[in-house]
Write a structure and sequence with these properties.
- This protein is mainly alpha-helical.
- Helices cover about 75% and strands about 0% of the residues.
- The protein has 28 helices and no strands.
- The longest helix has 21 residues.
- The termini are far apart.
- The mean pLDDT is about 95.
């Protein structure tokens, strides 16, 4: 075969990888070939190797191509992509740096380098890279859309929405941008607008699984569990390998008390992605609710093996320890969770509730106070802090709590402030939606029990704790708190 034909076959992505590989090798081993032709041979042989998944063979070939042609920015970019596929973002960033020095006006390389920084959780630096990409290519919707995702990770929903708006102005049929704008609106608490965006995403692309999954999350946040499950079903039907939908559907099965279905979904998520730490943690919690504490500990332990700084895995071990009456270990595990994530209010609340029944009153007020500080709009945090203060004879703080008197749990707050009777609270807990009614009756019984206990009406408190234990969903904090309340007062759950 003539040299030109070999070079042509070497660079043809229409040929099978093995034929390309042979043609490229012939070019490389041809003593008469120029250094540029041999560089092209190494580069295309590397690309053929990537096509077969052989990254370990591709990366050295990219290196030889670069040695022969150091000004080839494309070779650096391709080697960077190979490093990313191997999970080595540092080497990838170094190669993107070199490519940018050669071609400083290529916006796509800045976008790729931004994604590598984002994979290392350097979100501010990644946003800066996208700033450069957008300045170089202001009409590229992808730059705005991807920067919007980074703003989401950084917790700035307003900036994210602005970027998604810009992306959609440039590309009005971008299902991903609609879906991600929905996530930003959900982050701001605007669930109905988020659902509207998910609907738009689905209209644009009825096969876009993340939009169904995200809409399912929105319905789950509204306690519309059946609608959430229907959307997760649609996400899985659109993409049977979409692992997040199995994980999210499992969480709703847990909420509905269907633990075997939840475990089956977590199992499938782990089959699809054996390194999915979130699925192991979710399954850990499901085992706790099934009272299989050893299996729960194994799953949370596996999550920590996969992600050693995973705060929620320690929280799962703490919950298992509570149910096993190992309260000292529960405090330790919550401490580890807080050490790893000092800005997660739920962990402070959980440790504070544990302290409410089995710990130091001063420490529990510090924990509950931190939960209120981190999430001041969550009335339940204020309720728990108020209960802890009242035990110590301190004045109520509920008058300062942000409260919409038209919404639950306003009746509970009014009970604790002396403005409503226990019977009126139970009446107010009724709702046409069965899931909502069950949740509110659970909370009404539990917090009324705490109110009666403050008034030293222990028998009535005991009756209400048992009702809460019977009726509360097992993933509610009130369920575990009812168990601790009964144990701390000398009664078996």
């Amino acid at each position: 075969m003539a040299a030109n034909d070999r070079l042509k076959d070497c660079g043809s992505d229409k040929l099978e990888a093995t034929r390309r590989f042979v043609a490229c090798t012939d070019v490389i081993e041809d003593d008469a070939a120029s250094s540029i032709d041999r560089a092209i041979g190494y580069l295309n042989r590397a690309l053929a190797s990537v096509g077969t998944g052989d990254l370990d063979r591709a990366i050295p070939d990219y290196g030889r191509a670069i040695d022969l042609d150091p000004s080839n920015a494309f070779a650096y970019r391709m080697r960077a992509e190979a490093w990313i596929k191997k999970g080595d973002n540092d080497h990838a960033i170094a190669d993107y740096d070199r490519a940018i020095r050669i071609e400083p006006m290529d916006a796509s390389t800045y976008r790729d380098r931004a994604d590598a920084w984002a994979s290392k959780s350097f979100f501010k630096r990644a946003i800066g890279e996208y700033d450069l990409a957008v300045s170089l290519d202001p009409n590229n919707a992808l730059g705005y859309s991807n920067r919007g995702v980074l703003w989401l990770y950084a917790g700035n929903a307003d900036q994210a929405i602005a970027d998604f708006n810009h992306a959609l102005n440039l590309d009005p049929v971008d299902a991903k941008a609609f879906s991600n704008r929905g996530l930003a609106r959900a982050q701001k608490g605007d669930i109905d607008q988020a659902i509207a965006d998910y609907n738009r995403a689905i209209e644009v692309d009825p096969k876009y699984a993340p939009a169904y999954d995200n809409r399912g999350l929105a319905f789950a946040s509204k306690r519309q569990n059946d609608r959430a499950i229907a959307d997760y079903d649609l996400a899985i039907a659109s993409d049977p390998g979409y692992v997040g939908a199995f994980h999210d559907r499992a969480k709703v099965w847990v909420r509905k008390g269907q633990f075997n279905r939840a475990l089956a979904d977590y199992d499938q998520a782990i089959i699809l992605n054996p390194n999915y730490a979130d699925a192991y943690v979710g399954r850990c919690y499901a085992w706790v609710y099934k009272e299989e504490y050893s299996r729960a500990s194994l799953d949370c332990g596996e999550a920590l093996r996969l992600s050693y700084n995973y705060a929620d895995a320690y929280a799962g071990l703490a919950l298992a320890s509570i149910h096993k009456t190992n309260y000292a270990n529960a405090f330790t595990m919550y401490g580890e969770a807080i050490r790893l994530d000092r800005k997660f209010p739920e962990t402070y609340l959980n440790r504070g509730v544990l302290g409410f029944y089995f710990g130091s009153h001063s420490n529990l007020q510090a924990d509950l106070g931190m939960a209120v500080k981190l999430e001041p709009g969550n009335v339940y945090n204020s309720i728990w802090l108020d209960l802890a203060r009242r035990r110590e004879g301190l004045p109520s703080i509920l008058g300062d709590a942000p409260l919409d008197i038209s919404k639950w749990p306003a009746p509970i707050v009014r009970l604790l402030m002396g403005d409503l009777t226990a019977d009126a609270v139970l009446d107010a807990a009724g709702d046409p939606d069965e899931t909502t009614r069950k949740a509110q009756v659970c909370e009404a019984n539990f917090y009324t029990a705490e109110f009666q206990r403050l008034r030293h009406r222990d028998e009535e408190a005991l009756r209400l704790y048992r009702l809460a234990l019977r009726d509360c969903p097992r993933d509610f904090i009130e369920y575990t708190a009812a168990i601790m309340a009964l144990r701390s007062s000398g009664h078996a759950p």
